Amino acid sequence: MKAEKIWFDGKFVNWDEAQIHVCTHTLHYGLGVFEGIRCYECHDGRSAIFRLREHIERLYNSAHIVDVEIPYPQNEIEKVCKDIVKVNGFKECYIRPLVFIDSNQLGLYVKEFKVRVAVISWVWGAYLGEEGLRNGIKAKVSSFIRHHVDAGMTKAKVNGQYVNSILAKREAISCGYDEAIMLDTEGYVSEASGENVFIVKHNVLKTTPLTSILPGITRECVIKIANDMGFKVKEERFSRDELYIADEVFFTGTAAEVTPVVNVDGRRIGNGKPGEITKKIQQKFFEVARGMHKEYEDWLTYI
Q: What is the pLDDT of residue 124?
């Protein structure tokens, strides 16, 4: 995972020098925001960051939701994301902007505090495994539910809220599954621990609407790609048992990309293999991310 440099509070420092104090406020209470972004090596040998502007815009939106002001303009953080790929000499990598609160005080309410910003990059392959991308994964509906929209700010990518995801994922893995699927407070499918969920039934795609879920950027891309390929996509609620009887299920996310799900709660999905529509969308997504379709070039920021 280790890279040569991290951008930290306005300058590039050596990986091991990017340190914080044990009394850092975010470490204790979880108030901070972050993003996950991928840079791909394209078909022509160039490298391009996928949906950079949209990711950084979401970072700033997340910070605004939790009332934290990022002390750098948005275009500077976008530039840093491009620079760190070059500085570390990567052709492909994962990029993690992180905004957190430093403080010489502890307690839930701190009147004066410093907002610190880091941008980290490292080489990170398929989040749910190359085998999972090819042959699909097994998922478990979690006993942990997703945050209520008024309990956790579900449109913000907040550090501390991911404890909910960690508990769900640990539970799923301890039960022999690869990933967790979480329900909302009314019992409908929300999202996975770090991914959005799609189902396919009778050639129609369905995905959870933007209620209790993080507005996934890969989710948005897949909706656009699927529509352009001639598939009908519905953004509407669906229940747990609809997962079981779906023809296909797949996850989307910056880390997970487009990952087929072939088993949910011990029930085989479809024929137990990645579905044909899932595979077509997955292939098109990777082609788009690697610059093979000019109509989507505005999604790419070349290094």
A: 92
- Cα–Cα distance for residue pair 65/55, rounded to 1 Å: 15
The Cα 299–Cα 183 span in angstroms is 31
Residue with structure tokens 């039960």?
Answer: 175
Query: CA–CA distance from 266 to each of 21, 93, 113, 144, 261 (Å)?
Result: 45, 34, 48, 18, 12
CA 205 to CA 282: how far, in whole Å? 14
For the whole model, what pTM was predicted?
A: 0.95
How far is CA 18 from each of CA 6, 35, 36, rounded to the nearest angstrom? 7, 18, 19
| Cα 64 from Cα 94, distance rounded (Å) | 24
- Residue owning tokens 């019992």: 187
Give me the pLDDT at residue 235, please: 98
pLDDT, averaged per 10 consecutive residues of the chain (303 residues), comes to 94 97 96 98 97 98 97 98 98 98 88 94 90 96 95 93 98 98 97 98 97 96 98 98 98 97 98 98 98 97 97
Reduce the DSSP state of residue 233 to 3 states and report it: strand
Q: Which residues belong to the active site?
A: 157
Q: What is the DSSP letter of 121?
A: E
The reported pLDDT for the residue numbered 132 is 94
Q: What CA–CA distances, in Å, run from 180 to 124, 171, 201, 254?
A: 21, 8, 21, 17
SS3 at position 63: helix
Distance CA(183)–CA(181), nearest Å, equals 7
Helix axes 52-65, 217-228, angle to 10 degrees: 140
